[in-house]
Amino acid sequence: MKLPILIKTELSKQRRGFIWLMILGIPLGTTMAMFLDMYIRYHDYLYVKGQELGFTSWDILLRENHRVLGWGIFLPLFIAVIATIIHYTEFEEDNWKKLLTLPVRRWEVYISKLITIVIFSFIMIALNSLGLVLVGKVIGFPEAINYRLYGEYILYQYVAILGVVALHNFLSSHTKNVIIPVVIGFLGIIVAPGVLSKNPDLAKLIPYTYTYYINNLNVGNSSIALYGGIISMILISVVGILSFNKKDIL
Amino acid sequence: MKKYLIETDNLTKKFDGFAAVNSINLKIPQGGIYGFLGPNGAGKSTTIRMLLGLISPTEGKAKLFDKSIDKDRLDILKKVGSMVENPSYYAHLTAYENLNIIREILNVEKSEIERVLNIVGLLEVKDKKVKKFSMGMKQRLGIAQALIGNPELLILDEPTNGLDPAGIREIRALIKGLPEKLGITVVVSSHILSEIELMATDVGIINKGNLIFQGSLEELQKRSLAQIKIGAEPKKEAIDHLLKRGYQVEERDKYIYIKEFSSPSILTKELVINNFEVYHISEDKSNLEDIFLDITRKENQDEITNIN
């Protein structure tokens, strides 16, 4: 079983890589954006509006992040870029042929890539939420922080993204052209809200929509985020492994 | 009986109906250096990729160490080091970090990295990022990657590609020493005959997907039968006479060429006694390059004939 070693080597391949700039830079950007949002609108508008609707300041901050800033909308696209970077590391200097002539099982290589995408995505999601906590503290919210709310928010995201991770692991492993999976990811986030509003049943089958169900922030029924993420990850990964096992490395 | 480390049985790879490799039966003996020779696009890399399990054959089988690459891929690859076409590397990492990735996957000692860096002469630049390496250094890193874990078989696809003459000489000397120093069987592919001639003990020639020669370098050299080049007048009558006497005669550039002969003196005597004026006689021995070109040309002509 070489899977743990393969994951370790996957992480070491990203040492000094662009991916870290993205993983750290995007949450830093969202933290700064949310700080500005709260700094400008919290005392005069958001807090008052939240009181009317029965939301705490921490609820408002989460909603602002997920819906107004669009973290829930753009998260699948960020994951698409992470997957592309991880796979491009192999395509860049024809490293697939070296990696796959080592005594490793192809499915283990495929899964190690999937887990690496998950690890980087998890870090980015956690940093986004940590940034929100920091904003709340700096602005000085009167209520105590609701750790459960933020813990659930992180965990729901972790599960909801699994389908997109699996889909982009599959797409990025099959094409050297980095534009294609990123464009598909972009189309995914464009199409998702339209399908959600016009055909909610069909939306349940599209992994790009699962971040909308998190904590009932956009649409109801958080369980769709959980089941959808897990089931789509399993199904897409099975197809991906079968395809990757047969793939000719030219 | 000769032990073969690699054997293929009608190994074929077709891409959209086009046979890139066509029913080849490789027999690569253990020990020594096997030169896999052929022009660009002949099917060398496709064959090597099939041997390493990177692509699946359309038909046929490949066996390495008496095991099928289809069924025992992992067992086989534990004993094989390879570099296919260009060296592979993570440019933003150092040479040491690149080799460490392979070392960890192969689960060998850390000292192995310094050992292979020393063999290829990159020890002093081990902490330099590979993107700053010259082509020759990258090529040597590729060989170092292939040597990690002390493989029994080393497959190097065009290892001197893109190198300057000094680099070619270095890599050649390095490869040449491997069987003797480390007991490794080496398969080297190249489109440059002189490269193979200077390194290999055995040779396989592939052209347009077909294996058109396989044997020892000596066997290939034996094909360089000397021809007798004769200048005689009247030429047409001289040719008729020699044909009648059972010689294989070819007429080229005003001269008569005899492939099978007893000796130049007998031929001279034969012609002079029969009143032909002999003004030139010499032995015309083709070198290995001529043989290679001759073999590949024949293959191309056969193909044209078949099409017609």
From TrEMBL, chain A:
It holds the Pfam family ABC2_membrane_4. The chain crosses the membrane at residues 18-40, 68-89, 110-133, 153-171, 178-196, 224-244. Keywords: Membrane, Transmembrane, Transmembrane helix. This is ABC transporter permease. It comes from Anaeromonas frigoriresistens.
UniProtKB/TrEMBL annotation, chain B:
Residues 6-233 form the ABC transporter domain. The keyword Transport applies. InterPro entries: AAA+_ATPase (IPR003593), ABC_transporter-like_ATP-bd (IPR003439), P-loop_NTPase (IPR027417). Transmembrane segments: none annotated. PANTHER family: ABC TRANSPORTER, ATP-BINDING PROTEIN. Belongs to the ABC transporter superfamily. This is ABC transporter ATP-binding protein.
